[in-house]
Write the structure tokens for this entry.
Amino acid sequence: MDERVPRDFETLRRTILDRRQSLPKRIAQIAAYALDNPDDIAFGTAASIAASAGVQPSTLIRFAQQLGFDGFTSLQLVFRERLRERNSSYDERLAALRAKAEEGAGHRAIFDGFVAAASTSLNDISGRLNEDHFEDAIALLTKAETIYVLAKRRSYPVASYIAYALGKLKIRNQLIESAAGLNAEMIGFASPRDAVIAISFSPYAPAAIEEARVISEQGVPIVAITDSSFSPLAQFAKVWFEVAEADFAGFRSLSATMALAMALTVAVGEKRRDAGRKRKT
Amino acid sequence: MDERVPRDFETLRRTILDRRQSLPKRIAQIAAYALDNPDDIAFGTAASIAASAGVQPSTLIRFAQQLGFDGFTSLQLVFRERLRERNSSYDERLAALRAKAEEGAGHRAIFDGFVAAASTSLNDISGRLNEDHFEDAIALLTKAETIYVLAKRRSYPVASYIAYALGKLKIRNQLIESAAGLNAEMIGFASPRDAVIAISFSPYAPAAIEEARVISEQGVPIVAITDSSFSPLAQFAKVWFEVAEADFAGFRSLSATMALAMALTVAVGEKRRDAGRKRKT
DNA sequence: TATGGATTGGAATTATTATTTCATATTGCC
DNA sequence: GGCAATATGAAATAATAATTCCAATCCATA
């Protein structure tokens, strides 16, 4: 038997959803029940679960076997594991991760360190976001004809995700990068009717700061994501956000910045959609 | 029997702590174990729990009876109920956040949604990383002359951060992208002495899959980060990681993928440094 | 509408697990 | 130190639960 048996709940869930169409009626019935009442599967007995789902115990076992398990019992283990995982509280786990990462035990510790850094950053920002700034930034970006996205080096991944998302949302945007060295010309097209999202953290990439300066002098409003009020980026920005990203092994987590960037993007998309609908009515 | 039987975990806990002093040795032993490992009580069998706690099953039953339950089974129910409770509150919180965002309750909810998605993903991966795969991937990448990084569209931000980090660590690498449309030629240079980090999530960008196929046919080992065992990327990979990223408003969080990618990168850097030092001595 | 294969229901069987029992050990008390 | 009360260990037993098996039914196809 080399069939791939889902050993975690998420995989199991997706496997079930994938096969949903091709399952026989009763099996499908128990499959739906399982996804709707995972706790019951975790705690119940084959007989009690079967009764609640309105099938025979044997059907429940056939369901498990069809998924590659060798019986109901092994299927149930996955549902139990899920409860165990979810149970331990967020803070406890984070503390444990940090401790392990700090005592420096091998490669696993490196991984834990990055996870801890990302979690910390998210924790931090979720309590710190300035809602007024957030609304201002959304308003500003919603009005823009073209949204320019500016970030270099370590912040560049965020910029590329913003550009991807804006594209998906059909919002005109321009990532300021050019393999041909035409950045300056690209910036030249920006006008006060456009807007910029600029991202830079210490040590600030000189190119990013310089381009932000030029573009703000053209009267283009800038929304900045940066790490402190002393940031050179802040002085050019109409609205700016302070994001404190934890780092690990010299590399900064991008999770908080990503979350903020995506929230801005989606909020702008939503606000434009609403405005469009209103205009039509 | 009108003895007061604790029917919720908190009451039970306090009852146990109250009586701790007056309990016989073995009973006290199982009592301590129960409070320290409530999950084990919830899921284990009388025999398995007794063994872990270093007592006889009969002792476990006597413990339950002393607390007023009529047997181990009814004691166990309290521990199971506790897991149910905790878990549902967790789900409720997350569902509430999503619901708020989906019913359009302000922009703040969108932000919270992204933070929640990122946290969930991190939580998820931290318990699920396969350490053997992780070590294999590190070993494989450490040996490589050049590390090629392959990812398109929504996964591209991760690739660009990997490339940045590898550069910082002075590890030769090549991001597979070309404004001049020379991807195929770029791939052509890769040899079996190199390695690839490939990242792709459903719906898999055709270009990424195609390039992974070509490069694997050249005998270049691939480390893949993807979302399920059904991923077309998995079949080309020497080592692959399954990362389940939560999504929000149609955009997948990248936080877990980022953490894994950075951990791989830094671990490779560290392993190379160690190897270099050994060679010198 | 007849036929073969797949699916399902329900009881029989097997396995696992909780509980009880009883012999033995330990403890507190005179 | 001896005796009773209590606690413990280990195995037997009872209970419960999972699995298997086979007959009945359903469903697609010719």
